[in-house]
Amino acid sequence: MVQKAKPPAAASEPKRRGRPRAYEPDAALGKALDLFRTQGFAATSLDDLSEATGMNRPSLYGAFGDKRELYIKSYQRYREEARASMVEIFRQEMPVRLRLERIFASALNIYLSGETGPRGCFTVVTAASEAVGDPDIRAMVLDGLNELDKAFASCFRRAKEKGELPESANPVVLAQIASATVHSIAIRSRARVSRKELEAIVNGAIDVMIGAKS
Questions:
Q1: Mean pLDDT of 20-30
Q2: How far out from the chain centre does Cα 166 lie?
Q3: pLDDT per residue over 118-161, tens digit each?
Q4: Angle between helical axes of 96-111 and 135-161 (0-180°, round to 10)
Q5: Distance between CA 74 and CA 33 in Å, rounded?
Q6: In whole angstroms, what is the distance from residue 26 CA to residue 63 CA?
Q7: Alpha carbon distance 149, 146 (integer Å)
Q8: Alpha helices (runs of H) in the chain, residue ranges in sequence order
Q9: Does the predicted model carry a pTM greater than 0.90?
């Protein structure tokens, strides 16, 4: 009996290498940032980060490195977003009082945000603590503080040139007072001081820096 020839075996589909990413790195970093801002570095475990981002530990390591690297990346992301929210206010031409009011309002919008309550400022609330023992984080914190001081100093320097401030005004000292006000409202917002009270602090500080409204 003549046996029928077997049909040629169908070509098997090429195997896929690796598993497709089930996450968006940008969104995952945002989740990690939210967690670090709320809980700080030490109180945030890898299990917490896995649950928040939807990524297991190997995936976290592969995408972001260890916990410290993820923390640093989160802090960099925070600084970029904070800078983007204020850069145009510093650049645009406007009276110095209006500029300061808008800068502080923008800061309050950041500090009072959070699904579970106000989180304050990443720099003041959590990064400053880590800066004590980590030289890389300390350098980032100092860079952020200096950047804010310089931006405020430029603001006051322009105001002085336009005659909005007296000749005796010192833009560098005023900038340090403005930065200190930013840090103060960051801490108080974390403690859930009301926005109304924080705005009263801001308005008082502005009066001290440039004089009360006539």
A1: 73
A2: 34
A3: 888 999 989 999 999 999 999 999 999 999 999 999 999 999 99
A4: 150
A5: 5
A6: 10
A7: 5
A8: 25-39, 46-53, 57-64, 67-91, 96-111, 122, 128-130, 135-161, 171-190, 195-210
A9: no
